[in-house]
Amino acid sequence: MLELHDGQHSGRAECVPYARYGESIESVRAEIEAGCRGLHGSEARAEAHAMPAGAARNAIDCALWELEAKRAGKPVWQCAGLGRAPEPVYTMRTVSVGSVDEMRTAALGFDGSQVIKVKVDGGQDLERIEAVHQAVPTARLVVDANEAWSIEQLAAWLPRLPELGVSVLEQPLHAGRDSALEGLPREVLLCADESFHDRQSFSSIAGRYDMVNIKLDKAGGLSEAIYCMRLAQSSGFQVMLGCMVSTSLAIAPALLLASSAEYVDLDAPLLLETDREGALHDRASGLLRPSPSIWGAD
Fold this sequence. Notes:
Distance between the termini: 20 Å
Shape: globular
Structural class: alpha/beta
CATH topology of the largest domain: TIM Barrel
Number of helices: 11
Strand content: 5-15%
CATH class of the largest domain: Alpha Beta
Largest sheet: 8 strands, parallel
Radius of gyration: 19 Å
Strand order of the largest sheet: 4-5-6-7-8-9-10-11
Number of domains: 2
C-alpha cells in the first residue's frame, strides 16, 4: 500500500505488480520511491504521468487523486469530473482453470450469477466451457484464454462458442500473434487484454478486437483509465473493467468507472479470505459496494 501525505491530508492506493511485463514487488517499490521523490505540488499528477504505464504509476496516480479530493473536501468522482458517484455493481464471477469436473463444481457455486468468467489454458477447453454452461445455463460466459490458444484451436473452437453460452472471448492468441484476428468472422466479441495497455494500444488493436480490458495496473492509474474509457467509447469499442488479485483499496478507483462499462470483472476482493476493514461487498451475490472509508474521500 502507498500513502502520500502533504502534512495535513493523505491519499492511499494499492497496486499489484504484473509479472507478465517483468514487474516484481521489488521493482515496483523502487519505481514508486523514485517517482514520489520527483512530485511537486499542483504538478504532481502530470509529473507522475511521465512515468511508464504500470503498477507503480497506478499507485501514485490513485493516491494523488484521493489526496486532492481530501484537500478539496470533495469525493474523487467529483474532482475527476465523472458526473455521478460510483454505484453498487455486480461483478462477474471467476471459474479458475482446472479439470472439467472441478470447473463444473465451481460453477455450481455461482448459480444465479449473470456473467461468469471461465479461465482456460488450451487443454480440454471446449469440455470445460460446456461443463460450466451446463452447470449455470442462464449465465453469459466470458472465456479468458490468457494467450493460450493456437490459431488452429481458435479456428476450430470459435464457431462452437455461441452454442455454449459464450458472449466474449478474451485474448485467445498471444499478443504478438494476434494479427490473425483481423477480419476474422465471429459471433462472439473478442476482447483485448494482454494486447491492450493504455491509449497507445488503440492503433494496434483496431480491426482485431471489439472490446478492451482496462486494468488500472496496466494503464498506469485512474487518470489513464478515464481517458481510455472515453476513447474506447468514442472509437466503437466495448469496455471490460478488469483487475489483478487485490484488496478493495485497489478496486475502489475502478468502481468509479464500472457503471459505464459493458462488463465488470472486479471480483478480486471476493477471492481473498480477508479484505480491508470497511469493505461493503456482498460476497455471496457478487455485489460490489463503494466504501469511502477505504478510498475516494467523503
